[in-house]
Amino acid sequence: MQSISRREARQIAVRAALLDAARPDDVLSMVRGIAMLRVELTTTVAPAADHIAWSRLGQSYRPEDLTQTQGVGLLFERGWMLRPMSDLGLYLAGMRTWADRANARGWMDANADFAQGILDRIADLGPLTSRDIPDEAFVPWPSTGWTNNRNVTQMLECLHMSGELAVVGRAGRLRIWDLAERVFPQVDEVPADESRRVRSERLLTACGVMRDSIAVSPTELHGVVPVGVPVTIEGVPGKWRVDPEQLGRPFEGRTSILSPFDRLMTDPHRVARLFEFDYTLEMYKPAVTRVWGQFALPILHGDALIGKLDARSDYDTGRFVVHRVHEDVPFTASVRAAVDQQIDFFASWLRLSIERE
User: Distance (Å, rounded) from C-alpha 247 to C-alpha 282?
Assistant: First the structure.
């Protein structure tokens, strides 16, 4: 079995995530490269999809670029992730079986008239948001948590995950729904076993190097098929797999301010072991228990995660408020200059002025 160094493994991961010096050409090539683009609408700093796109495409990226790419049918959304429409066939089998796997079939069947009413309303009136749809559920959604009695949004989500509805845009934070048959092209369904293999290959290509574990990315793929080649990483415990196309390639890095939902941050165990980076998103923690801040942004420099930026965007006053830059190790003058430049670039792209506390 081949062995690689920790540094080579980090460089493979950074390069595969499209965070090295070579940038993708456009939104579609970026999403293809990293296999998915996370949709997370929190505006503490910036919506995740836009932040992730900026970190790859740079100052020329605009949120409307992503909206347009999805609007012309080059991307589709599923499970709060945007993916290339060319991959749709890989997900059709999973859509057909989703309700059974998610234990939602009984509730959907008990509310079959409610579900059909939603589909009929959208068919007649065109794309709608949840606010345009009355709650006609016969059996309420059984959750006792935050989804309790949110029958409309839960049925929309069920119909979406089952492949009957598609997201075609947003009105503020609300998703706009249309019939999937009016949005998705006619493509062949890839058999489930073949789909899992191809999707596992896509995931490995996007990550470069992954733990040989079924727990790598459960929100994307439950149980990854063994793909790539097995390797050991010097000084790093565990079994690993690497994309053979990434081995032996030169590396040129850069500095970037990352979203907490970035592809590079997908697997916390990989982040901790390869990058020796201590990180937790603390937005749901009480303020008094936070170490790095509500929405600290990982800082990438070359092949290393070197610190966190504790900042927030105040769109009402037009300020990008920098509370603190946490240095995991003391920055040299050149590293400090590179990080400060990226903070300036980021604030400029957000069209906010920097205020340092």
Answer: 35
CA distance 45 to 52: 12
- Residue pointed to by tokens 């947003």: 170
- Sheet of strand 81-84, all strands in order from the earlier edge strand to the far edge: 37-38, 81-84, 75-78
The beta-strand segments (E) located in the chain are: 2-4, 37-38, 75-78, 81-84, 165-171, 174-179, 209-211, 229-233, 236-242, 255-257, 297-301, 304-314, 319-327, 353-356
Start-to-end CA span in the chain (Å): 51
Q: How far is CA 146 from CA 42, 71, 140, 153, 243, in A?
A: 17, 31, 13, 12, 40
Helix (H, G, I), strand (E, B) or coil at 4: strand
- Reply yes or no on whether the pLDDT at 148 is more than 70: no
Which tokens in the block code for residue 242?
């690497």
- Indicate if the pLDDT at residue 149 is higher than 60: no
Contact, 186 vs 192, CB < 8 A?
no
CA atoms within 13 A on the CB side of 10: 22
- 255-356 CATH fold: Aminopeptidase (3.40.630)
Q: Is the pLDDT of residue 146 over 70?
A: no
Which amino acid, residue 313?
Answer: S
As to burial, measured by CB atoms within 10 angstroms (0-12 exposed, 13-18 middle, 19+ buried), residue 112 is exposed
Is residue 243 pLDDT above 60, yes or no? yes
Compute the Cα dihedral for 327, 328, 332, 335 and give only its sign.
negative
Domain ranges of the chain: 87-183, 255-356
Single-letter residue type at 80: W
Note the CATH number of domain 87-183: 1.10.10.10
- AA identity, residue 327: E
CA angle at residue 256 from 29 to 270, to 5 degrees? 80
User: In the structure, what pLDDT confidence band is assigned to residue 144 with cuts at 50, 70 and 90?
Assistant: low
Mean pLDDT for the chain overall:
94
Instruction: List, in sequence order, every beta strand (DSSP E) within 106-254.
Output: 165-171, 174-179, 209-211, 229-233, 236-242
Confidence category of residue 145, pLDDT binned at 50, 70, 90: low
